[in-house]
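not sure who needs this but someone in the group chat was asking about 39S ribosomal protein L1, mitochondrial from Pieris brassicae so here u go. i didnt clean anything up, its just raw.
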Amino acid sequence: MSGALFRSLFNSLSLYNCSATRSLHTATVYYAARKGTRAKARAKKVKVEITKVGFIPHNQRGKDKLAKTNINKHLDDSHKSISQDNVYPLRYYRWPVYTAEEAIRAHQETHHPSMYNEPEAFVYAKVEINMEGVKKNRYIDNFSRLTLLPHYFPQDEERTILAFCKGPELIKQVAEAGATLAGSTELVKKIQEGTVKLGDYDYVIAHPNIITDLVPIRGLMKRRFPNIKAGTLDTNICDLVKKFAAGIQYRVIKDENQQNFGSVEVPIGRLNMSPSSIAENIDILLKDIQTVRPKRDGLFITRCIILSPPSSEKLKIDPFVHVDRTLSKEVQEDSDDEDNVAAATA
């Protein structure tokens, strides 16, 4: 009796809810493992080799983990006393300051045939710079310069220059000035054909009268395309050729650990030159570096040392004989006016 009642009730429910019933999925379901699970399982199986370290005394443990103390590279020995003797340790007394000509003569004596026997050695000027910018905690980026010194000296390197200009007379003058290859629109066609390769030349310069004709090969030149900012585009192209052929190129680089310290080492002559000629080269070099000085108070060029390998002797000269120690009042007033205008517009 109860079974029949249950069957009739089940049949009645199935008639009313047949549309709502769903079939059950009974097949096997495979779920993917979470990302990295298999990699972690494989990593557990790898055996980690532990290297045994011998006995380390207690006073030497953890020395490699100690933070390195950075020493300020802007050396200032003004607080030290001046030695009254000719022989003294530089660690405890001020460095002697020479004039540029005195430093050159001293190097000429040490490179005499009776000593180092290098009478034609190079003379270098190592210039140290304060790289602080106008704003606080801002620093100047690394910069490159090319300057023509008044007294030429052989540098044991060949420079190739590609010059673009119009006019047969101007092309002839540029070639006589020292350009490796000079030409006009026919030179552009040779570059497009591949007979002339830009990679074979160290410098690419041009005259403004041909700059529009160089647009078709701008993609090949890329960053070497002549422009005024890079100093490779000028109306006086003959002097530009001489500058690139005989000029001194240098790059000031910031220190990795001390952002406000930069230095550069530049050849300024040879010891077989007269001391006065090398001194004039030093003067032009320091003035060229001074042109990059930001409009702020304080020193820009902090120190200048004259070197001449293979001698390890470093002779300090006073750079402020050649350049100003501080900014002039006119420049400071101009920078203040610019700051006021910027603040007003903001």
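also Residues 15-21, 340-346 have pLDDT under 50 and may be disordered. if thats useful
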